[in-house]
Specification:
Oxidized Rhodanese, domain 1, alpha/beta, 2 domains, 5-stranded parallel beta sheet
Length: 282
């Protein structure tokens, strides 16, 4: 069973097995249909496509939710059933390479108690680089029945953060690029900056120059430096819309640290209320 990362060579050996479901999560904010088009041209054999906006997010309510709110448990469970996922299914998610989109699907399945889910290390870019098999056939999985467990206590809301900011034992971690955290550059959301008190830990820091996750020792060193003696159960990660923050949570799970939480609404949700404080700089 793979619960965090799976390497391309290992996945190749599992292609065609009935108990594996491969999900292609390629997506670009700059061109939201590019991932679907790329999938239709070429993908890992047997993969089905998941669109970040349509499949991995709930209803957006302008001025109320962030850009990628979590879907309802019922809606996501139904989607997993149509994908043919049940309690015996090993799910493997991949995206264009960095893993930030695939990690969102990983988090959502973990959130509902499905632990047999992993992200393909290096994603599509590494798979292609290795010259591994590709296909253009659109897979149509046989329906199964996905039975979600009660959601894990792994989410926090904006109201929680306003309260928790008053407690010295809580830590909030911003997973966006450092220049977005500092408010120097904001290419997506209408307001720049970060949530006061948050520290910066860009999710890309989990990857080496080849686009693969650092080994466990390097990840342990990274999070030891970042978190010190901080209790993970009192630590929450956020990003722009609750997607790439899951990358940091995935990295933590990979080194056996599983208690941190996600602010799923993230920055795009925080700024919907102009009364909430904003910070800039370091």
């Amino acid at each position: 069973m793979h619960q965090t990362l799976i390497n391309a060579e290992v996945l190749q050996e599992s292609l065609g097995k009935a108990d594996i479901r491969i999900i292609d999560c390629r997506f670009s904010l700059a061109d939201k249909e590019s991932g679907r088009r790329d999938y239709e041209v070429s993908h890992i054999p047997g993969a089905i496509y998941a669109h970040l906006d349509d499949d991995l997010s709930g209803e957006i309510i302008p001025g109320t939710t962030g850009r990628h709110p979590m879907p309802s448990v019922a809606d996501f469970a139904e989607l997993c059933s149509t994908w043919g996922i049940n309690e015996d299914t090993q799910v493997v998610a991949y995206d264009q390479g960095h893993g930030g989109i695939a990690a969102r699907l990983w988090f959502m399945l973990q959130w509902l108690g499905h632990d047999k889910v992993a992200v393909l290390n290096g994603g599509w870019a590494h798979w292609e680089k290795m010259g591994l098999p590709v296909d253009s056939e659109i897979a149509v999985p046989e329906r199964s029945e996905f039975q979600p467990a009660s959601p894990k206590n792994s989410l926090v809301e904006a109201g929680d953060l306003l309260r928790l900011q008053q407690e010295d034992n809580w830590l909030l971690v911003d997973s966006r690029a450092a220049e977005r955290y500092r408010g120097e550059k904001e290419p997506i959301d209408p307001v720049a900056g970060h949530i006061p008190g948050a520290v910066s830990a860009p999710f890309a820091g989990n990857l080496n120059s080849d686009g693969l996750f650092h080994d466990r020792a390097a990840l342990e060193q990274r999070f030891d430096t970042l978190l010190g003696e901080q209790e993970l159960s009192q630590t929450a990660f956020y990003c722009g819309s609750g997607v790439t923050a899951c990358h940091n949570l995935l990295a933590l799970h990979h080194i056996g640290r599983t208690e941190a939480k996600l602010y799923a609404g993230s920055w795009s949700d925080w700024i919907t209320d102009t009364s909430r404080p904003i910070a800039t700089g370091k």
